[in-house]
Target: Class I SAM-dependent methyltransferase
Amino acid sequence: MSAVDKQNALRQAAQMRIKASHALKGDANLLAQHYFEWADSYELDMDRERYSGPSIVAEMAGALQAAYIGGDRAATAVLDAGCGTGLVGVQLDHIGFRFIVGFDLSETMAEMARQTGVYRHVEGEIDLNRSLSEYASASYDMIVCCGVFTLGHVHPDGLRELSRLTRPNGFVIASTCKSYTQAMSFEDEVLRLQEASVLAPAQCLNDGRFLDGEDAHYWALRVLEKSTKQRR
Ligand SMILES: C[S@@+](CC[C@H](N)C(=O)[O-])C[C@H]1O[C@@H](n2cnc3c(N)ncnc32)[C@H](O)[C@@H]1O
Model:
């Protein structure tokens, strides 16, 4: 097999694993099993050349921190929700964030994120489709979610709990790839939360590069003061 054929075969296998993850309908057990099996080859499949999501999300976090949050970047509390193996955390660390916490459903992926050494703390077995009531409101300046509001993974409803964990005037930054935007009602959920004075869209990068041929929207959602008081 030539090097090109080998490369194409690897890409096809990666594409199949990605597609398979999209068919899991948010079932926590199936997702955990899928990522348990994928963890070892995940970073090979999602190499930086193909997967722009983590660096774009981290750059957005950096820009929002500089423009609106200010203070010491190293002390800005960031939750990487659905941190996977830590690709976003590594990019955040690269631009000076030092207070990074990770959550993930898969303990196997969470352990790989721990191994990067850039997180203060990483928790596995956290399901973002469920209530996070054991976690205090307004704990983070920013929450980043890359590749998490994705088909078969986390439902747009999950945004409400993430907003609650973010402090007033902090941000939830989320990628939503094209297939998800078309199939799910993420934008409707943003509008619902805006009407309920929970959050307001601050920026959106439409149709940015995400993974190979698939583009994504990158949302920066500002959490409003009122919501946190109401929900504490
Ligand atoms: C496509 S990966 C993205 C990982 C990382 N953010 C990145 O950009 O490389 C999706 C991650 O979301 C996690 N995940 C899937 N469903 C989840 C859920 N309901 N709650 C928390 N994490 C979930 C998976 O375990 C996996 O690590």
